Predict the structure.
Amino acid sequence: MTRDPLNSNPLDSNPLDSNPLDSNPLTLPSPQGGEGIVEVVAAVIERDGLILIARRPAASHLGGLWEFPGGKRDAGESPEAALVREIREELGAAVAVGPLLETVDWAYPEKRVRLSFFRCQIAGEPRPLEGQEIVWVRPAELARYRFPPADATLLERLARG
């Protein structure tokens, strides 16, 4: 039986196992995409049917909104290395980076970003090392939290299961 990637749960299997979504991640261009894009990586960390999200500090870009943990890639850094570094810095935990789930190009009034969302597994218990709030939520509860608009398509996919 062939699995329908649009109507299946990308988190049903082991996060590091391959599935149809992994070989064909969704890419959504921003209407204003182009040069000068800030490269950002984010981890969709799932454990026991829950997804880890973090609240951005109030003084930061998009402060107060919820996000998937991660951050900006450094020059010459691979997306996977950036996620390992960011999760260690933000949450004090080791992470195994799995497949790319989605890439979104998005233009905010003040900057353009390319967000790459990866399925990840975390080792140990995450701790909010940067003063951020973190919480584990069920995919169906993600809509109760305010996220940046660039995350909307991924949030819908995760909530559908």
Notes: The first strand starts at residue 26 and ends at 28.
